[in-house]
Amino acid sequence: MDVSAHIEAVYADICRRDPGEVEFHQAAQEVLHAMVPVLRAHPEYVEARILERLCEPERQILFRVPWVDDRGTVRVNRGFRVEFNGALGPYKGGLRFHPSVNLGIVKFLGFEQIFKNALTGMAIGGGKGGADFDPKGRSDAEVMRFCQAFMTELYRHLGEHTDVPAGDIGVGGREIGYLFGQYKRITNRYESGVLTGKPVGWGGSHARTEATGYGAVYFAQEMLATRGLDLGERRVVVSGSGNVAVYAVEKVHALGGRVVACSDSSGYLVDEDGIDLGLLKDVKEVRRERISAYADAKPTARFSARGSVFDVPCEIALPCATQNELRQQDAVALVKNGVLAVAEGANMPCTPEAVEVFRDARVLFGPGKAANAGGVATSALEMQQNASRDSWTFERTEDQLAAIMRQVHAQCRTTAEAYGADADDYVLGANAAGFLRVAEAMTAQGVV
Ligand SMILES: NC(=O)C1=CN([C@@H]2O[C@H](COP(=O)(O)OP(=O)(O)OC[C@H]3O[C@@H](n4cnc5c(N)ncnc54)[C@H](OP(=O)(O)O)[C@@H]3O)[C@@H](O)[C@H]2O)C=CC1
Ligand SMILES: O=C(O)CCC(=O)C(=O)O
Predict the structure, then answer these.
(1) Which side of the chain, N or C, has fewer Cβ within a 10 Å radius?
(2) 168 and 231, same domain (yes or no)
(3) Domain shared by 222 and 337, yes or no
(4) Protein residue with its CA nearest to atom 38 in ligand 1
(5) pTM of the full predicted structure?
(6) Three-state SS across 277-301?
(7) What ipTM, to 2 d.p.?
(8) Residue 251 appears among annotated catalytic residues
(9) Beta bridge partners of 92
(10) By residue range, what is the domain housing residue 222?
(11) Rg (the chain; Cα; Å)
């Protein structure tokens, strides 16, 4: 059987059926490319049309979200939830509130989530959702009304055994609280496990807020260890300054590294003293200001509205903002400046051309579906705690997170080698290992 031709045909079909969904095409292409050696070893998955079934979401929900702003003006947004694959458990994945959100972006994120969630080894399927709502500059009351309107439609598709959303860009503890409150009001059920990322005081898990950023740093640490290196004293650049970025900075500093730059959509910040985490949290989490406010408050820091944060020399780069933020020219600059490892805290932040540059230069590269899997894994730990009406300590939860990240890392390497690639090929390893777990479950469950 000509496996390459089969894969080409599947990809062509995706592009024909869903033209314009460019981010979804990009995410699918990466996975499909990695499937060549896997399908050669498993022709039964070609026969069972596993790829075709995986690339078509089980359910896509699009809905109107009407709400009223503080001035009494009626606003209308579009809401999305893509329930991509439920072979391993309830659909699981975050909600993104950002003006750029469209179906293609939600599908790319939901598709990634299938393989990421499988890699964690936990009982969670893949899904993602969101809205083209921009929370920036909105009052708490407006965000609450939007969340209530969003949940007024979405609630009918959710359930702790059905579909369990969490946060993503623009959705943090505040939004999860409002969404949970509306779900509870409509259903008259206190169903703790229907959303994750809840505040710790009422059903949230310790370490969930920190988990994605911490996990990405653990993954980078594991990659470095394969070459006898560690994080101590290393110069690190982190892009973004949201949930993932802030806790990546925190863990790098705890492990002895020094983050010298981070960013937001307005520009980037360099502080050779090392990013002051207290100040960063105050600017971004408390005051919700632009990152330039950090430089206004600290004389050792400089803010730049032009250029890229990846121009700042570093040994480790952690892209933690958004998709396709690290382009070919950024990768070339990083390599020229001696980068050793890149771990994706965000989902698909590196373009395919950038990944190629890292591969050619033998830079250790951890793709998001492996490197940022700590967030969703800790969400699954939150679901476990909710199901048993228990609450674990921070230490216990973080120990489990660290163990899961070590397991994900090891699984990538052994799977890459098993399919004839170098153990450093984390892209092949992550995609193949995630795929195999889902394909096995789909096969056992029949054509559904
Ligand atoms: N939260 C989680 O647990 C997980 C998140 N991820 C991924 O991590 C990434 C960051 O998510 P998270 O930290 O939760 O989100 P946040 O909303 O907390 O932070 C996002 C950060 O990225 C910046 N950013 C967002 N969009 C753009 C853009 N178009 N251009 C430049 N900068 C941008 C934001 O800047 P500004 O404030 O100016 O918009 C902000 O600094 C996303 O890719 C997400 O999918 C992956 C796994 C789990
Ligand atoms: O915690 C979750 O359920 C979702 C995390 C997420 O959206 C992601 O991994 O990209």
Answers:
(1) C
(2) no
(3) yes
(4) 265
(5) 0.98
(6) HHHHHHHHHHCCCCCHHHHHHCCCE
(7) 0.98
(8) no
(9) 126, 164
(10) 209-366
(11) 21
